[in-house]
Amino acid sequence: MNPRVSLRYQRHSSRKLQPLARLVSGKGLTEALELTKLMDTQSAALVHKALKMATSAAESKEMDRDKLFVSGIWATEGPKIKRVRANARFRSNRYLKHLAHITVEVAEREPVTAQRQKRVKKDNTSQKERAKSKDQNGTKN
Description:
Layout: E1 4-10, H1 14-24, H2 29-38, H3 42-60, E2 68-86, E3 92-108, H4 127-137
Antiparallel strand pairs: 1-3, 2-3
């Protein structure tokens, strides 16, 4: 079973986390950690934190850190916090604060054991051209 870690109820919109999740998905774990560490956004900091948690969870299951990659990452909506802001003429407006859940799953990459088959160059000549060349060489069926 692959380790799965989730950061829940983060004060950040899931819509802003999803492009970063798509960027990190499928990459090696060390590459993803470096990528999110260099970014200067709040969403990158949250994803970096989740990736570090996933790394420690994988190491506790005695998985090789060099073979790990991000097999899945999800940024889903959490509950919304309702707030009220004062407005002109003693009125008030409601607004929402969005929360998000970040889930990261890591797995070990399997080594490629199947050897590649040799590619045979395909003959692109037509049957008529092959028949002509046989006639010219003197080998007729």
